[in-house]
Amino acid sequence: MIIKTKNDIPASEITDPLIFRGRRKIIKAVLAVMGAGAGISPILADSNKPAWADLPTGDFSADFLTPTPAELIKNYTNYYEFSFNKKDAANLAQNLRTDPWSVEISGEVEKPGSYYLEDVLRQQTLQERIYRFRCVEGWSMVVPWVGFSLGELLKTVKPLSTAQFVKFTAVYQPEIMLKQRNNAMLEWPYVEGLRIDEAMHPLTILAVGMYGDILPKQNGAPLRLVVPWKYGFKSIKAIVKIELLKRPPVTSWNQFAPNEYGFYSNVNPAVAHPRWSQSSERQLGSGFFTPRRQTELFNGYGEQVASLYSDMDLRHFF
User: Fold this and answer.
1) pLDDT above 70 coverage of the chain, percent
2) Kind and range of the H or E run holding 312
3) Cis link prior to 269 (omega < 30° from 0)?
4) What is the arithmetic mean of pLDDT over 138-165?
5) Of 34-38, 54-58, 182-186, where does mean pLDDT reach its minimum?
6) φ, ψ at 309 (rounded to 5°)
7) How far apart are CA 141 and CA 74, in angstroms?
8) 192-243: per-residue pLDDT in tens?
C-alpha cells in the first residue's frame, strides 16, 4: 500500500527563516569534550552556546520545513512525571539529574549490557533530522532533532530472531518527579513500545539534542525516542532501559485508557480520538486567525512507512 504525501507547505505554516538561522551559529567544543570521555556536563547543558556544528542531515529529514521557534518548543511540553501543566513541567524538569547517564539494553539480544551515554555516542553518527511532530491532543510543531538511528544502536547488541518488540522505560526519580512520588494518573515509570520493524526503520531515532544544541531537560534529555509518524506520546523521554521482547509490552497510556491510546498510535486523521477529531491540527506558534492544518496519514510519512501496515486494519490496530 503506497500513500502519497504532500511536500507543499502553506505560507501560514512557515516560520521566518531568520529565526531558525540565527539559532544555527554553533560551536564544536562539546564534540572534543565528549571525545575525551567527559560526556554531557550539566554546565554545557545549561549553556547558551549550541553544541554541534555542521551536522550532516539525515536522508529522511524534511528540509523543506522551517522549524517552530525553539523557545516555543521548550516551553510547551507534556511531561506528566512533573506536572499536568505544560509550562510548570518545563520549569520543574530542570531539577532532573541527567549526568552521568547510562542505558541498559537487555532481553532477546546476544550482547546485553549497561552502556554509558557518552560511549554510545562515540559509536554513533549524529545527524540533524527535521521532523514533523504531532501530539494526540491536536497540536503540532516542526523540530530539528539531533540524534542517531535507533536501528544502528540495536544492531550493535545483535538482536536474536526471537526479538519481535522493543520496550522502552523512562527514568524513575520520584524524589524529583512529583507525579511519580504521588502515583498520579499513570503507572510509573513511563513505558512505551514499538514493533521491531518500526524500531529498525531509518526514520526512528534516539535524540540527544535539538536546534543543534543539547536536548533541554523538559524535552526529554538526555536521551529520547522520536518516531515521527506516530503521536508524540510514543516518543518517550529520558530513556534508561531498552528491552527486546518476544511479545508486545504493556505501555503506559495504553494501560491507562486502551480505548483512547492504542499500542500503534499512528497519526491517522480518519480515526478520531473518542473525545475529539484528529482530522486537523493547531500549529504551535500560529496566530489566532491561522487556519488549522489538515492532518496527514502517518503525519506525512506514508511514503516511507505505509508498507509496515499494508496488511493491517488501521481502525482496529489504532
Assistant:
1) 85
2) none
3) no
4) 98
5) 34-38
6) -125, 20
7) 12
8) 999 999 999 999 999 999 999 999 999 999 999 999 999 999 999 999 999 9
Pairing of β 280-283 and β 293-294: antiparallel
Return the pLDDT at 291: 94
Per-residue cell: 29: 567544543
Residues in Cβ contact with 317 at an 8 Å cutoff, skipping those fewer than 6 apart: 262, 263, 264, 309
Residue 78 has pLDDT above 60, yes or no: yes
Considering the chain, what percentage of its residues have pLDDT values greater than 90?
A: 79
Measure the CA–CA gap between 124 and 121, rounded to whole angstroms. Answer: 5
For residue 282, give Cα distances in angstroms to 251, 274, 289, 315: 27, 18, 11, 23
Please say whether the beta carbons of 225 and 206 come within 8 A. yes
Under a CB-based contact definition with an 8 Å cutoff, are residues 134 and 231 in contact?
yes
CB 62 within 8 A of CB 145: no
Report strand pairing: 113-116 vs 224-226.
Answer: unpaired
Contact status, residue 140 vs residue 267, Cβ threshold 8 Å: no
Which of 178, 181, 177 lies closest to 240 in space, CA to CA?
Answer: 177
Q: How far is CA 305 from the centre of its chain?
A: 17
CA proximity to 134, closest of 288, 13, 255: 13
Q: What is the dihedral of CA 35, 41, 44, 46, to 10 degrees?
A: 160
For residue 48, what pLDDT is reported?
A: 59
Q: Which residues contact 148 (CB under 8 A, 6 or more apart)?
A: 121, 124, 125, 126, 127, 205, 206, 208
Taking the CA atoms of the chain, what radius of gyration do you get in angstroms? 19
